[in-house]
């Protein structure tokens, strides 16, 4: 075991493809010291397998006694990936005081999809006064819903001003079904009912996923004798306890990217930079300003949905090493298209399943003409059977056909209807599609070697046989195809980085302009008009594949690209160097002259004096954030109070409108005391 003077921290990042682990000693110099790092494949059917593979490797490399670890912190992209890919459990949305027309606002209807919704009379007005609550419709629906959904989301009209009706519905559902329930006032104090309902719906969908992740991690740590507290990185880069994250999994969207920003700042010391983190499923681009990540004041946007979750101002794109590679439809000279869906790379499928994959690829290569489904397989993800509740007849029949061994799609699918059914199973997170990806292209060119290169080459041969609009093969050799795929990925990365920069600058048409600029930069004949663009700050490239995919990035963005030494575990490192930070909000309104109504901590109180209401709000918030900070994992929190008053001046007289008060508690996470 190494001679160490400070406590040891274990960082874990569970991504869509890999689970990373890093062992860090905070006393190892100004930036601490990475003692060991390792990767293992993320095993979605049993997350503990991937976690144990990475952590055991770190412990073995460093020769560390597990009992010497005093804190474990984890980041994850599972929630982010699930929203980008449209996955999650089936949940019931309970809308109190809303109408069906409200589903058309804030993207709520699109997010709901085919999941059930129940409307109940009730809710409150802007000052917290109650309408009549009637939950009879919910009571009648609960027997059926209890057996067909994995959880519930409850949102009541103006619940942020008075949560009483949400609490009543929550208690009823828990009593009758025993299933997890998310109430909207627990997640956000902001107005905007449909968007708050959307955030609550997504939170409910993610509970089972994050619960499995936390349970798997805690189980593994217990088996290894690691008794340290377990923390989780939130979407704003702050740390919270695992128990806290289990109840509010929506706050872990952008957890992995937020941790990567913390890690990027820690590794490079740069205060101002663009940070681009490429993983297996997504590329996440954000801005460092003055040593801190920019936060999105409107709430994080992931998978096209604008939530009310405070998180880093990060743009998430469905572009990664495992992105689906397809061809542009209907073009004479079709372009290579990437993502947004993640596939299991053929090289990985070949490594795990061997001849079950390679023999099918060879069979397809022997066919005289390329097939539309060549190089594609379906395989179960291995999630628990209870998460398959609510399948339709055709979905259940197809799901039974698909097993733990990849099945070629040209044998599985006999109609377009069956293809649509398969896509629904994929969106539910029950089935993976295996196919050709940039990771396979890297294996073909010997730029990546951790999986089975021979299977990747078979996939490239099949893809290269596809025809363009003239009936010609799209590539002469597998190597030519692979090179096109990797060049496309680098070019798209540059476009997304520039698009993010333009959007942060408030420019309209950011995506169009970014595409045009990069296209001109790579064209042999750029046209009559010459124009260039340059970022005002360098790019920090993160991710295990960043050295490969970002090697040609600098000339496309007009500034340097720095890839730190430990870029492959930036998320895991960021997970252990952050701080706990929680907040609580209070609102003081004036329903009538001389009456000051305080809403704080789920309680509503009236005062006849403004100063008394403000003092009571601050005292209540201090109690609330102190309790939240302890639950979140710190015993030594520093509390700051921020006040914002809205007033009007009428004939030189001050007229109180409302006051918004926020308390923020922050501190380092508690650790096991060093003997």
* Shape verdict: globular
Record field, number of beta strands: 29
Mean pLDDT across all residues, rounded?
86
Count of separate DSSP helical elements: 21
Largest sheet: 6 strands, mixed
Radius of gyration: 26 Å
Terminus-to-terminus distance: 16 Å
State the strand order across the main sheet: 3-2-1-4-9-10
Describe it for me?
The mean pLDDT is 86. Helices cover 36% and strands 24% of the residues. The longest helix is centred in the first third of the chain and has 31 residues, at 193-223. It is an alpha/beta fold. Strand 11 (273-278) and strand 12 (283-289) form a beta hairpin. It has a 6-stranded mixed beta sheet, sandwiched between helices. Strands 11, 12, 13, 16, 23 and 24 form a 6-stranded mixed beta sheet that branches. A 5-stranded antiparallel beta sheet has the order 27-26-25-29-28, with helices on one face. Helix 8 packs across helix 20 (570-577), helix 14 crosses helix 15 and helix 16 packs across helix 17. The protein is built from 21 helices and 29 strands.
Please provide a brief summary of the model.
The chain is an alpha/beta fold and 675 residues long.
Task: For the structure shown, list the relevant keywords.
single chain; 675 residues; alpha/beta; 6-stranded mixed β-sheet; 21 helices; 29 strands; 36% helix; 24% strand; globular
What's the SSE blueprint?
Blueprint lengths: L7 E7 L3 E8 L7 E9 L5 H16 L6 E8 L1 H7 L6 E6 L11 H5 L4 E4 L15 H10 L5 E6 L7 H14 L3 E3 L9 H31 L6 E4 L5 E3 H6 L7 H14 L4 E6 L4 E7 L2 E2 L7 E2 L2 E2 L8 E3 L5 E5 L8 E7 L1 E2 H8 L1 H12 L10 E4 L12 H9 L5 E2 H4 L3 H12 L3 E5 L2 H7 L8 H12 L13 H27 L5 H13 L16 E4 L3 H4 L4 H4 L3 E2 L7 H8 L2 E13 L2 E6 L2 E5 L2 H23 L5 E13 L2 E15 L8
Parallel strand pairs: 1-4, 4-9, 5-6, 5-7, 7-8, 11-23, 19-22, 23-24
Antiparallel strand pairs: 1-2, 2-3, 9-10, 11-12, 12-13, 12-16, 14-15, 17-18, 20-21, 20-22, 25-26, 25-29, 26-27, 28-29
Helix pairs in contact: 1-6, 2-6, 4-5, 8-20, 9-10, 9-15, 10-15, 11-13, 14-15, 14-16, 15-16, 16-17
């Amino acid at each position: 075991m190494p001679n160490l003077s400070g406590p040891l921290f274990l960082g874990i990042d569970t991504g869509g493809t890999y689970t990373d682990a890093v062992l860090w000693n905070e006393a190892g110099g100004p930036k601490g010291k990475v003692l060991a790092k390792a990767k293992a494949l993320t095993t979605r059917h049993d997350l503990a397998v991937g976690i144990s593979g990475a952590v055991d490797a770190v412990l073995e490399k460093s020769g560390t006694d597990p009992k010497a670890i005093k804190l474990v912190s984890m980041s994850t992209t599972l929630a982010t990936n699930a929203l980008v890919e449209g996955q999650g459990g089936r949940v019931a949305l309970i809308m109190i005081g809303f109408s069906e027309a409200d589903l058309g606002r804030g993207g709520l209807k699109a997010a709901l999809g085919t999941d059930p919704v129940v409307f109940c009379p009730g809710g409150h007005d802007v000052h917290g006064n109650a309408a009549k609550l009637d939950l009879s419709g919910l009571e009648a629906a609960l027997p059926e819903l209890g057996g067909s959904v994995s959880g519930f989301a409850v949102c009541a009209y103006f619940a942020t001003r008075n949560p009483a009706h949400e609490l009543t519905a929550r208690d009823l559902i828990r009593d009758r079904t025993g299933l997890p329930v998310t109430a909207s006032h627990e997640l956000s104090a902001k107005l905007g009912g449909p968007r708050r309902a959307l955030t609550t719906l997504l939170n409910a969908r993610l509970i089972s996923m994050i619960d499995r992740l936390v349970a798997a991690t805690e189980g593994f740590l217990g088996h290894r004798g690691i008794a340290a507290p377990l923390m989780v990185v939130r979407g704003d880069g702050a740390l919270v306890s695992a128990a806290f994250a289990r109840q509010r999994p929506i706050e872990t969207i952008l957890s992995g990217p937020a941790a990567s920003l913390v890690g990027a700042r820690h590794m490079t010391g740069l205060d101002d930079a663009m940070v681009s983190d490429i993983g297996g499923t997504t590329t996440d681009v954000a801005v460092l300003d003055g040593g801190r990540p920019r936060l999105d004041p409107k709430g994080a946007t992931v998978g096209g949905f604008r939530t009310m979750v405070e998180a880093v101002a990060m743009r998430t794109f469905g572009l990664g090493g495992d992105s689906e590679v397809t061809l542009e439809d209907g073009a004479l000279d079709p372009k290579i298209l990437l993502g947004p869906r993640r596939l299991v790379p053929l090289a990985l499928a070949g490594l795990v399943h061997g001849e079950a994959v390679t023999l099918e690829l060879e069979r397809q290569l022997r066919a005289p003409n390329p097939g539309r489904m060549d190089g594609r397989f379906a395989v179960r993800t291995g999630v628990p059977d209870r998460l398959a509740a609510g399948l339709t007849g055709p979905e259940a029949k197809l799901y039974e056909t698909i097993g733990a061994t990849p099945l070629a799609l040209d044998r599985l699918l006999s109609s377009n209807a069956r293809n649509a059914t398969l896509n629904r199973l994929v969106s539910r997170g029950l089935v993976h599609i295996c196919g050709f990806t940039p990771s396979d292209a890297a294996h073909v060119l010997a730029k990546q070697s951790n999986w089975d290169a021979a299977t990747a080459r078979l996939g490239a041969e099949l893809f290269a046989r596809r025809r363009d609009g003239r009936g010609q093969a799209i590539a002469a050799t597998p190597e030519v195809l692979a090179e096109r795929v990797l060049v496309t990925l680098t070019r798209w990365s540059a476009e997304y980085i520039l698009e993010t920069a333009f959007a942060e600058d408030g420019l309209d048409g950011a995506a169009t302009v970014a595409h045009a600029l990069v296209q001109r930069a790579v064209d042999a004949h750029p046209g009559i008009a010459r124009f260039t663009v340059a970022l005002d700050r360098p790019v920090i490239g993160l991710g295990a594949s960043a050295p490969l995919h970002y090697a040609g990035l600098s000339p496309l963005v007009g500034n340097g690209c720095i890839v730190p030494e430990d870029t492959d575990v930036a998320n895991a490192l960021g997970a252990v160097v952050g701080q706990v930070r929680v907040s609580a909000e209070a609102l003081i309104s004036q329903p009538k002259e001389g009456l000051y109504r305080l809403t704080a901590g789920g309680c509503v109180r009236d005062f006849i004096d403004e100063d008394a209401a403000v003092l009571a709000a601050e005292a209540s918030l201090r109690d609330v954030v102190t309790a939240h900070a302890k639950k979140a994992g710190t015993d030594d929190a520093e509390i700051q109070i921020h006040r914002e008053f809205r007033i009007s001046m009428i004939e030189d007289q001050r007229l109180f409108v409302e006051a918004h008060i926020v308390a923020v508690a922050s501190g380092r996470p508690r650790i096991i005391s060093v003997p």
